[in-house]
Design goal:
Distance between the termini: 66 Å
Number of domains: 2
Strand content: 5-15%
Number of strands: 6
Helix content: 55-70%
Strand order of the largest sheet: 3-2-5-4
Shape: elongated
Radius of gyration: 36 Å
């Protein structure tokens, strides 16, 4: 009886185990435990100080900041990627500032501490003098920032709407006859010594070309991208190309400042190699 009981009991235990193994819930639990064990074995632990994580909350705050400064427009994929990279650079700089104790005795906000670390990195970058060829190539790509532009001065009485052309021509006749009402004088806009290229986005290139080519000191009617205008050209001063020799010192400093910024960003990225960065991609 005891022997038979042992067999029966053993068979019962084995049967129970077999039934338990066949349970889907148990299989799921075992599989989950195995995955967790493999992940724990293959993923090194990271201290909180060395983990930088782009969480959904961080990503959303970046998007919200962009929208608030761009009239509600969502950032594009490339724009968002660049903004996240900038956030990471700032976070790395901030972490390094804390690691070096720059927050000790300083009750200022995070930006102040980050700025301290950024200055340390920036000032620690050694920039050599550019060669003449390097400086010349750099200058030619940015010549528009140094050349003296055409300067235009004119008076404009604008008109919009379906009958804008007719109104402008009628006012032109009044001005020529010296009978324009005070309302016309109050509507006149004065543009003094304006760089030519700054006028083109608002009025259109054809309008600016027509003013420059027109007679000086005479009123005329011209169409633009925004409507019709009664205009008078007062002065036009042609611009000119500026040789590198004229602004060599200024250009050399600008070149070194840009180079220093590039190297400082690279140095910050190198500091970031000490951190584990996780991007919670949507």
């Amino acid at each position: 009886m005891k022997t038979g009981g042992a067999k029966a009991g053993g068979g019962g235990v084995l049967g129970f185990v077999r039934r338990l193994v066949r349970e889907p819930l148990l299989q799921f639990m075992v599989l989950g435990a195995l995955i967790f064990a493999v992940h724990a074995a293959t993923t090194p632990s990271v201290s909180k100080e060395r983990l930088i994580e782009v969480t959904p909350a961080v990503r959303q705050s970046i998007v919200d900041a962009f929208k608030s400064s761009h009239e509600g427009r969502e950032p594009g994929a490339d724009e968002l990627a660049k903004l996240i990279d900038l956030w990471l650079l700032n976070e790395i700089t901030f972490r390094e500032a804390l690691a070096q104790g720059l927050d000790k005795g300083d009750e200022m906000i995070r930006d102040r501490i980050t700025h301290k670390m950024r200055l340390l990195i920036f000032n620690g970058v050694d920039v050599a003098e550019p060669t003449p060829d390097e400086l010349s190539a750099w200058y030619e790509k940015r010549r528009a920032n140094y050349d003296i532009p055409d300067l235009v001065s004119f008076i404009d009485v604008p008109f919009t709407g379906a009958d804008a052309e007719a109104q402008s021509r009628a006012v032109l006749e009044q001005i020529r006859a010296g009978t324009e009402p005070e309302e016309v004088q109050l509507r006149a806009l004065i543009f003094s010594q304006r760089p030519r290229q700054t006028l083109e986005p608002s009025f259109g290139k054809e309008f600016v070309n027509a003013i420059v080519a027109g007679p000086k000191g005479e009123w005329q009617v011209l169409p633009s991208a925004t409507g019709w205008h009664v205009v008078r050209l007062d002065t036009f001063v042609p611009g000119r190309r500026v040789d590198l020799d004229e602004v060599g010192g200024q250009v050399g400093q600008a070149w070194k400042d840009e180079r220093r910024r590039i190297l400082a960003i690279a140095a910050t990225r190198d500091l970031g190699k000490a951190y584990v960065i996780r991007r919670d991609e949507p």
